[in-house]
Every structure is written in structure tokens, then in C-alpha cells.
């Protein structure tokens, strides 16, 4: 739902989401107060305040739950990248005992694999399109390495070496799964609808000081909008300004290049 926002810089998103929401809340409160009369019932704020408190608690739980989920997904993606890069280095070390030209060929494929991942797969992949959007070059590099393994005499490829390549494939699958946009659209609907309802209750409440009323409504709106802005920034771990760093794979390339040929 929000993948198109990945192309917008974080500072501009902040201005659009937070600044725009705060401005609308302030203007809406002032305009509404000018067009409506003060309630004559003294219990108006008590009833509205009680309902607002209930709505606020429910929305706060939903918002906090979503932030935690998205943050855990982002941290899981960082961990998956680190594990896959480590598996890449392990394969390079395990194959250092291969005779030439097999050793050089495997190292070349490992380097190419890392480059394909950085250049082709460091972006958001829509759910249900994983098999079409993953890098063909990266898959070809892994298949080529398996072909090199099979071309060697059995005594030169021990089980630990094949296990390390199996582990690389497994870590790749985990990283690709963490790259799929996972926040359901129904959850986005709940966040946006709940935020609008909470802000509307601020408008229902009455204060004698119109500017103070508008300022408090704008502050609450800014807090909600900032939380949504943070969710947008980290919802897609491999896209946007706060995407997972490629440093782990670049370090793996450096290690591979430093091994003797």
C-alpha cells in the first residue's frame, strides 16, 4: 500500500505527513469553533472526554503494537542480511582448499552473487511476486557453484563444504522473505481510521480558549502523524532512506577478494 512512498526522501515525507496533518488539525479546529456555538450542557465534556479516553487507549495499543511489529521485522531483516553475508564468507573460506581453477571460479561466483544481491534485490518485493522479482543472476551464481562442486572428485568436497553452501541458500531464502512488504492493508486502514476518530474527538471537546484548543489538537495530531511517519520509514527494510545497509555484503566481497587465488 505504501511502497510508492519509498521514493520520497524522509524529510519531505515528514513535512507532508506530519506538517500537513498538524496544519489541517489546527485549521480545522479554528474553523469548526468559529462555525459552531459553545455547548450549553455542562456535562458535554465529561461524556465526550470519557469516550475519548476509551478511544485513545484502544488506538494507543494498536499504534504501539504496529510500531513493535514493524521494528521487529526491520531488525529481523538486518539479522538475515548479516547471517547471509556470514554464510557467503564461510563458503569462500571452505572452498579455499579447492584446486585451481575451481577455487577461483567459486570465488568469482560468490563475488558475482553478492553484487547481484546488492544491485538487484535491495528493494521491496511485493507479496506473491517473489519468484518473478528475485535476481536471476544470483540464482545462476548458486547453481554454477553447485555445478563446480559436482565436477570435483568426491574426496575434495567434504560434507562441511556442501553444508555451508546449503546454509547460504537457506539464509538467502530467509532474507528474501523478510524483503516482502508484510504490513497488511487492513492494519493500515485501522491506523488511519483510528487516528481520524481520535482527532475528531478532540474537535468535539470544548475549551474557552480557541487557540489553546487548536494547539492541543495539533499536538496530538502531530504525535499520531509522527508515529505513522516512522512506520512508513521502516516498514520496507530494503527501500527508503532507512533501508538496511549493504555493508555486510560489501565486507563479504572485500574478504573474498583478499583470499589467495
Give an overview of the whole structure.
This protein is mostly helical. The protein has one domain (3-258). It is 74% helix and 0% strand. The longest helix is centred in the first third of the chain and has 51 residues, at 44-94. The chain is rod-shaped, with a radius of gyration of 27 Å.
Strand content: under 5%
Q: Helix- and strand-based class?
A: mainly alpha
First CA to last CA: what distance?
48 Å
| Unreliable segments of 5+ consecutive residues | none
Task: Work out the radius of gyration.
Answer: 27 Å
Outline type: rod-shaped
Arithmetic mean of pLDDT: 85
Biggest sheet, open or closed, and with what strands and sense?
Answer: none
Please tell me the total number of domains. 1
Number of helices: 9
Order of helices and strands: HHHHHHHHH
Q: Percent of residues in helical segments?
A: over 70%
The total strand number stands at 0
Short characterization:
This protein is mainly α and 261 residues long.
Strand and helix layout:
Blueprint: H1 10-35, H2 44-94, H3 102-120, H4 130-133, H5 136-151, H6 159-178, H7 185-204, H8 210-235, H9 247-258
